[in-house]
Amino acid sequence: MKALVISGGGSKGAFAGGVAQYLIEDMRKDYQLYLGTSTGSLLVSHLALEKVEKIKEVYTSVNQKSIFSHNPFRIKQKYQGQQIAINHLNVLYNFLRGSKTFGESYNLKSLIRNTLTPDEFERLTELNKDIVITVSNLSLNQVEYKSINDFEYDDFCEWVWISCNYIPFMTLVRKNGCEYADGGLSTMVPIEEAIRRGAKEIDAIILHTEVNYMNRMPSRNAFDLMTTMFNYMLDRIEYQNIKIGKFVASHQGAIINFYYTPTVLTTNSLIFNRNKMTKWWQNGYDYARLKNHSTSEIQ
Question: Tens digits of per-residue pLDDT, 66-110?
Fold first, then answer.
C-alpha cells in the first residue's frame, strides 16, 4: 500500500501542494492512503480526488479573513517584511464574549465546507482510498485519527477544521464531550500511523527544513514569546515523529521518501500571502521534480 503523509505547517502547506501535484500528476503515483495533520488535512481530500488545480486556486487565495472570524493578529509591514502583532481590541472582545481562545476560526470552517462539496465527499467514499485526519483530544490527552470511512459529510468537515485549529489563537472545539484542537499538538507527521494502517511505501512531505538554518529573533512581547514557544514545541514534536517513523519503518519493511522544504519559507506560518504562497506552490513542484530526476539519474 502506498501512502501520502503531509505534515502541519500553516501557510507553508502551499509547498506541500506543489510537491503532491508533481507526485500525482507527473509521476502518476496511486496512493491508497492519505494522512494529513493541520494544514495537511486541508489538502488530502482534494488530492485523493486529483482535483489539484481546484485546491491550488483555493489554497493560494486564502488570507486572514478566510481563516479568522475573530482575528487576534495585526499584520505590520516592517523592514520590507511582514510581522504579526496582537490585535488588543479583538482579543479583549473575544474574552468578553466568553471565548477561551485569543481568536476564532469559524470562517475556515465555512471555507472547508464550501470547498469540499457533498458530491465530492460521496465520490471520495466510493473510491478505494482512505483519507485520515489527525486531531488532538485535550480532554483524554491523546491523539486521534479520523477516517473518512467512519463519518458523514458534516462530521468529516468538522474534523478537518478541528485538525487546523492552532490554539490558543484559533477555536477550541467541544465535540462528543471532549475538547479538541490542532492535530499538530500531538502528531505533526503521522508516519507511524500510516505504517500501522498497512503502508509499505510512504511519501512524507515535511514543511520544515531537514537541518535548522535559522536563529529566531528575540521576542518583542509576551504574545510574540507565546508563538515562539509553540513553534519550538511543534518542531520538537515533528522531530520525534520523524525519528519514531524511521524506526518503525525499519522494523516493518516500509520505505519512506522524505520531501523537506529546501529553504526556510517563513518564520510565521500564520501569515497568509497570496503571492508568497503561489510561489511556494511552484517551489514545491520544482523541488519534487528535481529530487526525483536526481534520484533516477543516480539509479
Answer: 999 999 888 776 655 666 778 888 889 888 888 999 999 999 999
Q: Which parts of the chain register pLDDT below 50?
A: none
Residue 2, CB-side half-sphere exposure with 13 Å CA sphere: 9
What's the one-letter identity of residue 36?
A: G
CA torsion, points 202, 206, 210, 214, in degrees to nearest 10? 180
Residue 206's closest CA among 179, 164, 234, 172? 234
Between CA 280 and CA 90 the distance in angstroms is: 30
- CB-side neighbour CA atoms (13 Å) of 206: 27
- Decide if 37 contacts 204 (C-beta within 8 A): no
pTM: predicted TM-score of the whole model, two decimal places: 0.91
- The dihedral over CA atoms of 102, 105, 107, 112, expressed in degrees to the nearest 10, equals 170
Looking only at the bridges linking them, the beta strands covering 178-182 and 130-137 are: antiparallel
Q: How many residues does the chain have?
A: 299
